[in-house]
Design brief:
By secondary structure, the chain is of the alpha/beta class. It is built from 16 helices and 10 strands. Helices cover 44% and strands 14% of the residues. Bound molecules: ligand AN7. The site of ligand AN7 has 21 residues, from helix 5, helix 10 and helix 14.
């Protein structure tokens, strides 16, 4: 075995063992860190890429479909990739407090990493529109939670002004370090598949993640780590699809509260990713989202949150356009446990409640 092969196989082994050092150390040479940067990590990254036969069956024509299960990050979403970078750089710069607006996942991640870095976290959320699990996380991680009578877009406007006027660092995806950390997901996909996929399907809210993936794919290709670039296929919920309909949505609505965003701050970057990759944007209805969410759960044993299922719903909607024998990766951005209300109200399970506690009743209920 050549030395390079030996080193890279050792690297791949380390990535999939408990020795994984977190994504900043794992991809140090690709990230804007230096010897003075304190690395604030919860060992995020190195999430699994899982083949999903039930979705392949829906698409047909020899297409391989994988999901990048980023809901297995430390706080249960891809935000941890960006947050380890944003918080480490904030710490390096001597910052003592961070602030963000959030539909839930950013607040959970910001709270966890800020606390780990010895900083305060202030999170603004749309009152009543954050899934239970996410709110629980922000509280447990000790953030100061400010629930406003407005939506995410209103909250983002406020925190941008806050960070301009007060000594507090903004950790939404306008913070460029967020994008740097999140681009490592694209690296991991190429490191695992040995090449970029033909399509990358991804949900879009504030559109930071699609911009980050595109940056990652471009950087890896420029350094010869892959030969091709994927088409970037971005999906939004029909009631909250400013990028698809090319206009600000003043009152976005969807069951996928994570992507209930009407005025994405990374709009220009996302459109650039779409155009340069020859990709496209499309909206998916809440019904299509829930259909994909159920298939992943009951056919694959993969529990994601509804916003994440938008990537698979979008792929299914675009099935006829996927290249024959091609490879597709759908990004599952968040863990299903984040939103138990959605799960309990949207499943096809058989649930016998209030049964008498004896074998006869149980056997009878099962149909013996
Ligand atoms: C599960 O937490 O905006 O397009 O404040 O939580 O990069 O915004 C969350 C976004 C997709 C969209 N999937 O990502 C927040 C927030 C899940 C998410 C998105 C979010 P971007």
């Amino acid at each position: 075995m050549s030395l390079i092969k030996k080193i890279s196989s050792r690297f791949i082994q380390a990535k999939h063992s408990s020795n994984w050092p977190g994504l900043i150390e794992g991809y140090r040479e690709w990230l804007p860190v230096n010897k003075n940067t304190p690395i604030i990590t919860l060992k995020e990254g190195a999430t699994p890429l899982i083949q999903v036969p039930s979705i392949q069956k829906v698409i047909g024509r020899g297409v391989k479909v994988f999901v990048k299960y980023d809901g297995l990050n430390p706080t249960g979403s891809f935000k941890d990739r960006g947050m380890t970078m944003a918080i480490s750089k904030a710490k390096e710069e001597g910052c003592e407090a961070v602030i963000c607006a959030s539909t839930g996942n950013t607040s959970a991640s910001a709270a966890a990493y800020a606390k780990r870095g010895g900083m305060k976290a202030f999170v603004l959320i749309p009152d009543g529109y954050v899934a239970q699990g996410k709110l629980a996380q922000a509280l447990v991680y000790g953030a100061e939670v400010l629930a406003i009578k407005g939506n995410f877009d209103d909250a983002l406007e406020i925190v941008q002004q806050m960070s301009n006027n007060y000594p507090i660092t903004l950790v939404n995806s306008v913070n460029p370090y967020r994008i740097e950390g999140q681009k490592t997901a694209a690296f991991e996909i190429i490191d695992t598949l040995g090449e970029a996929p033909d399509w990358l399907c991804i949900p879009m809210g504030n559109a930071g993640n699609i911009s980050a993936y595109w940056k990652g794919f471009e950087e890896y290709k420029n350094k010869g780590k892959s030969k091709k670039l994927p088409k970037m296929m971005g999906f939004q919920a029909s009631g909250s699809a400013p990028l698809v309909f090319d206009k600000t949505i003043n009152n976005p609505e969807t069951i996928a509260t994570a992507i209930r965003i009407g005025n994405p701050v990374n709009k220009v970057k996302a459109i650039n990713a779409k155009e340069k990759s020859n990709g496209s944007f499309l909206d998916v209805t809440d019904e299509e989202i829930i259909n994909a969410y159920k298939i992943l759960g009951q056919e694959e044993g993969i529990f994601c949150e509804p916003a994440s299922a938008a990537s698979v719903a979008g792929l299914i909607k675009r099935a006829e356009e996927v290249p024959t024998n091609g490879t597709v990766v759908c990004v599952l951005t968040g863990n299903g446990l984040k939103d138990p209300d959605c799960a309990i109200n949207n499943n096809n399970a058989v649930f016998h409640s209030g049964l008498e506690s004896n074998i006869k009743t149980v056997a009878n209920a099962i149909g013996f």
